[in-house]
Design brief:
Blueprint lengths: L1 H14 L6 E8 L5 E8 L8 E5 L4 E3 L11 E3 L4 E5 L6 E6 L4 E6 L17 E3 L3 H8 L3 H8 L3 E3 L8 E6 L5 E7 L3 E6 L11 H7 L14 E3 L2 E3 L17 H14 L6 H12 L23 E8 L4 E6 L6 E4 L11 E4 L15
């Protein structure tokens, strides 16, 4: 047991301290009234051993605590949910519950700061990597999320680890971002744009968009420069100057412009497919973030999986670096009062399927 616990804590520290951890989130709305939230999760250090978990109503969990303790806050699921977990099944990074609440964590290094752990408050203390699992089981709306978080203490399992921030979206389409700073100060932001990446904080990213006021969809018009005419080389010249690197500020800008210029789709299903197409642009190839010869893992992509969630429709979709087919878990087909707890690997075969075309 002690060996397993040590592995859990080592994993948590490693996950949130590695330099290639990144996430990009977008939000799209269909003409039939559905909101779809989608995101990527990146990790270039190793295979994340990603799993999906099915959590029934009433399932009891207990938070990990700093120093290897396992007797933190106990929480029972009022709502059943489906989560996408990384490394350990306790660490749900994205999920959807039966009430239509979506929740996800995004890396937030150097800008967040939780409160210092107080052993006297361990019964109301929850590890940051377990906040998503707790709130998916507890809340139905973003207002309930805000109320619940104010009653607990969120701490790091390991002080070497990075902090995270969180995105919550409910069935109405309302979305908030939670950032914890200054040793425990809760900051909630109404995220009407619906884009999220990593550090710095959300207000900084929104302000930074003003640096790109010159960008617009479509072609740039020709213009005269003295005696010569300047004209575009190809389509999309209105976006000339859009940043293409993989830093969080650049990904935020790129996501904001791709999202807002995308044509609105008629249905939720088409919007889900559109979100995956947009997020294709944020796949990070292995090697781009490391010095030559320093790539630490033999994996096909630093973007390990991409997900999309239709809260009103009750479906969560995902694809992985090993299998680009889009898979769907329909919560409407799960009886959360009867189903058992399950943790299942996203990929049983770690090889991209290739279909051979038979020519007759």
């Amino acid at each position: 047991m002690k060996t397993v616990l040590n592995l859990l804590f080592a994993t948590a520290a490693l996950l949130l301290s590695f330099p290639t951890s990144a996430c990009t989130g977008i939000t799209l709305k269909s003409k039939d009234g559905h909101t779809v939230v989608a995101r990527t999760i990146e990790w270039g250090g190793s295979d994340l051993n990603s799993q999906y978990v099915i959590v029934p109503r009433g399932y009891r969990q207990q938070s990990l605590l700093p120093g290897g303790q396992t007797d933190g806050m106990t929480f029972d699921a009022r709502y059943g949910y489906v989560g996408l977990a990384v490394e350990q099944e306790q660490f749900v990074a994205e999920g959807l519950n039966e009430a239509g609440l979506s929740a996800g964590l995004f890396y937030f290094p150097a800008y967040g700061k939780y409160e210092t752990y107080d052993p006297a408050e361990k019964a109301s203390t929850v590890a940051d990597l377990q906040v998503v699992a707790w709130l998916l089981g507890e809340c139905a709306t973003v207002d309930e999320v805000k109320a619940a978080v104010k009653k607990v203490h969120v701490v790091q399992i390991d002080p070497r680890a990075s902090t995270v921030h969180w995105r919550f979206t409910d069935r109405t389409g309302r979305q908030i971002v939670l950032e914890i700073v200054n040793g425990g100060e809760l900051r909630f932001y109404e995220n009407t744009l619906g884009v999220l990446t990593n550090s710095p904080d959300l207000p900084w990213h929104l302000t930074n968009l003003n640096n790109y006021v010159n960008l617009f969809p479509g072609p740039a018009p020709a213009q005269q420069l003295g005696s010569i005419e300047l004209k575009q080389f190809g389509a999309g010249s209105g976006f000339l100057g859009l940043p293409g690197d993989v830093t969080p500020p650049s990904r935020f800008v790129r996501a904001a412009f791709y999202q807002t210029s995308a044509p609105q789709q008629d249905t939720a299903g088409k919007t889900v497919l559109q979100s995956f197409q947009i997020l294709n642009n944020f796949d990070i190839p292995v090697g781009i973030e490391f010095a030559g010869g320093k790539v630490p893992a033999d994996i096909p992509s630093a973007t390990q999986w991409t997900s999309a969630t239709d809260m009103m429709g009750g479906c969560i979709y995902f694809r992985t670096m090993y299998d680009s087919r889009i898979r769907c878990i329909d919560l409407n087909g799960i009886d959360f009062s009867q189903t058992r707890y399950q943790a299942v690997a996203m990929d049983t075969v770690r090889q991209q399927p290739v279909e051979k075309v038979i020519i007759h």
